[in-house]
C-alpha cells in the first residue's frame, strides 16, 4: 500500500471535485431538461444526480442524498421520471457537462494534453474505488466512460465525488448527526454552504434550521453565536479524518507521484473554472 503525504488525498479530491460539481451551478442542465418538458428548476438536481439509480422513489433519493428535506424530494420524485426518464436525463447531463466545461475551461484547455493527462490519472484512481455500501458511487460506476477527454475527466471526478460522499455519510450517521445538524455544523466551519444557500436549496424552513442549531448547542457542539465549540471542532475534524480513511484507496492506488500530478493539474483547471464564474460568489460563508 502506498503511503501518501498527510492530507494529500483530501487536497487532491478538493480540486478534482469542482470539475464535476460546476454542472450544479450552471443553467445548462436545467435548460436541457426544460427543453424535454421538465421546467421546475428545483427538480433538476434530483433528476441529474439520481438518474444513475434508475426510476427510484423519493425515499431512495432522500437516503442517498442525505441532506435534503424528504418533503422537498417527494415534491419532485418520482413524478419527474414521467417527464424525463433516467436514461434521457443521463444523456442530457453529458451534453450539459460538455457545454459547462467548454465555457468555464475554454477550448484551448479542453484540447490540451494536460487535460487528457488529468483524465487518465483520475480514471486510474477510480480503479480502486469500492461499490460496497456506496449506492451513489456504485450506480455511477455502472455508466460508460465518455470518449472525449474532458468528459472522461468529468466522469472520473463524478466517481471520486460519489465515492467520498457515500463514505462521508457513513461518518455522519456514526456521529449521530441528522441532515440539518450535519449541514449546520459544516456551515460553522466556514467551508460549508452559507445559510442562505441551504435554505434556498435544501427544503428546510428557518425554524427547522434554527432547531437543528439548537440541538447542536444542546450537545455542546455549537455556541450561542453559532460558532463551533472545541468539541464541535474536534467532531468535524474527526469526521473528515474518518472520511479520508474510508476514501483512501483510490489515491493510494494512484500513488504519491500520480496524486501530486493530478492535484497540480486539477488545481489549475478548477482555478480557471472559478475565475470564469463556475460557482456563485456567495456560495460559502461563515454565518
TrEMBL record:
<dbReference type="InterPro" id="IPR054058">
    <property type="entry name" value="HTH_67"/>
</dbReference>
<protein>
    <recommendedName>
        <fullName>SalK</fullName>
    </recommendedName>
</protein>
<dbReference type="Pfam" id="PF21863">
    <property type="entry name" value="HTH_67"/>
</dbReference>
